[in-house]
UniProtKB/TrEMBL annotation:
Annotated protein name in UniProt: Propionate catabolism operon transcriptional regulator
Lineage per the UniProt record: Bacteria, Pseudomonadati, Pseudomonadota, Betaproteobacteria, Burkholderiales
Gene Ontology terms: biological process: propionate catabolic process, 2-methylcitrate cycle; regulation of DNA-templated transcription
UniProt entry keywords in alphabetical sequence: ATP-binding, DNA-binding, Nucleotide-binding, Transcription, Transcription regulation
Ranges of residues in domain PAS: 202-254
GO cellular component: cytoplasm
Domain annotation Sigma-54 factor interaction: ranges: 331-563
SUPFAM superfamilies assigned to the protein according to its UniProt record, in alphabetical order: Homeodomain-like (SSF46689), P-loop containing nucleoside triphosphate hydrolases (SSF52540), PrpR receptor domain-like (SSF159800), PYP-like sensor domain (PAS domain) (SSF55785)
Length: 649
């Protein structure tokens, strides 16, 4: 696992706190551990040791302490920090006694805490008289020591303090610790320091998260006593000066109580709550450990912030609606007519001038507008498309320019920004500009000239930076002659002119546009057919067709063809003549059946006759052949007497 960024780095910091005797004895071990830890060696005198250690803890300069005997006990009892104890091993004591026996037959043993009953067994073994004593305080130790001295003991085995006293009195003091025990103490301290650092890292992380939250958070234990609180909640509970830790939340602020959560164990989310003259959204959550409820937490979210977030989410959704999805890469086809249009559009995209896109319905005017926007310096900014023909005049006006609150009956509170404002810094695509009512044309002209808009009912204009791309399928020059379009607006919009060719003027693009559409549709519907292979027999029909609805019509037809193809699992099994039911327009065109040369002759003729309602002249026209040819075919194919089965047109 990667270490938390909050875990302190560098060597673990140990503080070795002891009396002089053990400290001096332990120096070789301290030197041994110097590469693995940063070790501070401190002289600990009884009582003073704790104050020294506390100072280190408060300054946060020590990860773990290592100490022995009474010092270790005092540190453990009084510090909120890990303390490793240098333990006295039984073998250590035995070695010290063997040394003592060489000097004297009577040995005093003075240890911190309690006596060691097992020593009695050693007594006989070593042929030594042992007088054992335990002490709790330094005074206690001194008294024990004095008593032994009075009794004539000259050698004392014991802790660091005892050895110190013995030496002061000119007696022999033997330290009961071995270097091995001291090493063990340092190893324990290193491990404690490692764990302490991990915990400190975790705590820091939580602390930092909690303290940086904008929300007010409080956590309580099982008894509703506050165990954690962050600054915003501290403020709500009584200000920074008040000590809230350990207090019952219920008593401090009954309105924020978590008792019900503690009792029921149920989470409450997004509950509106009024507190301290503000509106909040409250979450109350039980805290569980191993399934048991051990506490609960309350989070208060500022209602204003939530409302702002809601608005921003809606704005984001709206911005996504106002984004241009297509680029020039979305344009299928390689015909010279299309390529010329693309080349012009690419050039226009580099300017910031208005563009008037002309062309029949469905030729791709909006697609080109999006592509120009995405190729321009305004890419990534809003692209707002509005169809001027799809709104009644009054609505179009408020859609485009927005309104102030109270501008008209039923106007929304706070007013509404218009599409010009929505398109600010981006592009506004005004489709079907020829359908814009004259009064709005006047307003539009003013916006284009002044570069500012005035919301309905507003008194001050709003500056606006928008590139306008307009489109029309109507001949604006004729509308001008009929006084249905303002000439000055026409010149304003018409700075750059992009005329898009109708699909029938670039029939070579039909396959390139239709094939991916059919392929996508087949894949979506789970058909195994290859779109290009399945479309090939239909290409003469598709190419011959007039496409009054241009690419949009082709898209629609491609979907129908794909759905028709669904019933076949192999291309050579497709009965193309049946497509006439789904796409009659393809078959109804003059010469259609003749175009579908890949279809068997019998089917083509039957189809043409059916579509012509039995009229031979019309059927011949559909097939693109003379009446006499048709008659001949009919006789050959059907052996039919034409006069009885058909009518002459
Ligand atoms: N060259 C092309 N390649 C692929 N798809 C195209 C191409 N041209 C147009 N389309 C697609 O045809 C459909 C109609 O295009 P678009 O809406 O841009 O036409 P329009 O001229 O703006 O139509 P209208 O005048 O009716 O608003 C869209 O789905 C568009 O993606």
């Amino acid at each position: 696992m990667a270490p938390s960024p909050f875990t302190p780095t560098g060597l673990p910091r140990l503080c070795f706190l002891s009396y002089r005797q053990i400290r001096e004895f332990a120096m070789p071990v301290v030197a041994e551990y110097a590469g693995r830890a940063q070790i501070e060696v401190v002289d600990g005198t009884f009582g003073g040791a704790l104050a020294i250690a506390q100072d280190r803890v408060e300054r946060g300069v020590v990860d773990a302490f290592v100490s022995a005997g009474s010092n270790a006990s005092i540190l453990r009892a009084g510090l909120r920090a890990p303390v490793a104890t240098i333990q006295l091993g039984g073998f250590d004591l035995l070695q010290a006694l063997i040394k003592a026996r060489r000097i004297a037959e009577r040995v005093g043993v003075v240890m911190y805490g309690q006596t060691i009953p097992e020593l009695d067994a050693v007594k006989d073994l070593l042929n030594i008289e042992i007088s054992q004593h335990a002490y709790q305080t330094p005074d206690d130790a001194r008294q024990r020591f004095e008593a032994l001295r009075r009794e004539g003991f000259t050698v004392i085995v014991g802790s660091s303090l005892v050895v110190e006293l013995a030496e002061e009195a000119g007696l022999v003091g033997l330290l009961a610790y071995s270097l091995a025990s001291i090493r063990k103490g340092f190893d324990d301290a290193l491990e404690l320091a490692r764990v302490a650092r991990l915990e400190a890292g975790r705590y820091e992380q939580l602390h930092s998260v909690l303290h940086n939250l904008q929300e007010a958070v409080v956590a309580v234990d099982r008894q509703d006593r506050i165990i954690a609180v962050n600054p915003p909640m501290q403020q709500l509970l009584g200000g920074p000066g008040l000590r809230v830790q350990g207090q019952a939340l219920d008593a401090l602020q009954p309105a924020l109580s978590l008792r019900t959560t503690l009792d029921s164990g149920l989470e409450e989310r997004a509950v509106a709550q009024r507190f301290a003259q503000r509106d909040w959204v409250a979450h109350r959550t039980p805290i569980r450990e191993h399934g048991e409820i051990v506490g609960a937490a309350l989070t208060l979210y500022d209602a204003g912030t939530i409302q702002a977030a809601d608005t921003s989410l809606r704005m984001m959704q709206r911005r996504q609606q106002h984004a241009a999805r297509h680029g020039f890469g979305s344009l299928a086809g390689t015909s010279p007519a299309l390529q010329r249009a693309v080349a012009s559009a690419r050039r226009f995209a580099r300017t910031d001038l208005g563009v008037l896109v002309t062309g029949e319905s469905g030729v791709g005017k909006e697609l080109f507008a999006q592509a120009m926007h995405n190729d321009s310096s305004r890419a990534g900014r809003p692209f707002v498309a509005v169809n001027c023909a799809s709104f009644p005049e009054s609505l179009l006006e408020s859609e485009l320019f927005g309104y102030e609150e109270g501008a008209f009956t039923g106007s929304r509170r706070g007013g509404k920004r218009g599409l010009f404002e929505a398109a600010h810094t981006g592009t506004l695509f005004l489709d079907e500009i020829g359908d814009m009512p004259l009064p709005l044309q006047t307003r539009l002209l003013r916006v284009l000239q002044e570069r500012e808009i005035m919301r309905l009912g507003a008194t001050a204009p709003i500056p606006i930076d928008v590139r306008v791309i307009a489109a029309t399928h109507q001949p604006l020059v004729e509308l001008i002659a009929q006084q249905r379009f303002r000439q000055d607006l026409y010149y304003r919009l018409n700075t750059l002119r992009l005329a898009l060719p109708a699909l029938r003027e670039r029939r070579e693009d039909i396959a390139a546009i239709a094939t991916p559409l059919v392929a996508r549709c087949l894949a979506r519907l789970g058909s195994p057919l290859d779109a290009a292979a399945a479309l090939a027999p239909l290409l003469p029909l598709l190419t011959a067709y007039g496409w009054p609805g241009n690419v949009r019509e082709l898209e629609n037809l491609a979907e129908r063809i794909a759905v028709f193809l669904l019933q076949f699992d192999r291309v050579d099994a497709v009965r193309y003549t049946e497509l006439a039911h789904d796409c009659p327009e393809l078959f109804a065109q003059p010469g259609a059946a003749a175009g579908a040369a890949d279809l068997p002759l019998a089917e083509r003729v039957a189809r043409a006759m059916e579509l012509a309602g039995g009229r031979r002249a019309e059927a011949a026209q559909r097939l693109g052949v003379s009446r006499s040819t048709l008659w001949r075919w009919l006789r050959e194919l059907e052996g039919e007497k034409p006069q009885t089965a058909t009518r002459d047109a």
